[in-house]
Write a sequence for this structure.
């Protein structure tokens, strides 16, 4: 048995459970990272897809719990309805004031509809959500350029190397 090292073990562990265990998202991303390095991209994506299909988590849940909240980004409106040529659809995450839509899956028609509404669409895959401290300053910067007055900040897991662009990072 190999015991992996990790940073911020206390923040990632549910100590109140018996026995104590890692939070689901942290455990899944850790296993996916190992699969990526040993079995390739397909193996890692298969694991992440399985977890989502079982409705244990979603990329948007990870975005909320690992990117938005810990880094001080504004919450967007989830599952925001819109009307398109094919009927009614839903945007995964909408920052209406900044005119930014964040969606998980590629959908060219949805992107065209967003563009016609002057929305900038961001497509996030598992790789982006798996590196939340790198993603937060990019999303924060886009939201700032589009009118958000706040500023993203580092979370407990951030280090200078994995969070370029965030202020007040220990070691950064």
């Amino acid at each position: 048995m190999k015991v992996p090292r990790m940073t911020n073990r206390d923040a990632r562990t549910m100590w109140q459970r018996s026995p104590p265990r890692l939070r689901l998202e942290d455990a899944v991303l850790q296993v996916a990272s190992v699969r990526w390095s040993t079995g390739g991209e397909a193996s890692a994506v298969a694991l992440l897809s399985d977890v989502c299909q079982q409705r244990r988590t979603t990329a948007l849940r990870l975005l909320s719990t690992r990117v938005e909240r810990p880094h001080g980004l504004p919450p967007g409106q989830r599952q925001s309805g819109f009307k398109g040529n094919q009927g009614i659809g839903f945007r995964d995450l909408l920052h209406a004031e900044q005119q930014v839509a964040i969606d998980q899956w590629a959908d060219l028609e949805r992107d065209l509809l967003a563009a016609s509404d002057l929305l900038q669409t961001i497509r996030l895959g598992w790789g982006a959500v798996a590196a939340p401290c790198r993603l937060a300053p990019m999303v924060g910067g886009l939201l700032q350029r589009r009118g958000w007055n706040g500023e993203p900040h580092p979370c407990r897991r951030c280090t200078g190397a994995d969070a370029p662009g965030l202020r007040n990072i220990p070691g950064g």
Q: What stands out?
A: DSSP finds seven helices and six strands in the chain. Residues 27 and 78 are 25 Å apart (CA to CA).
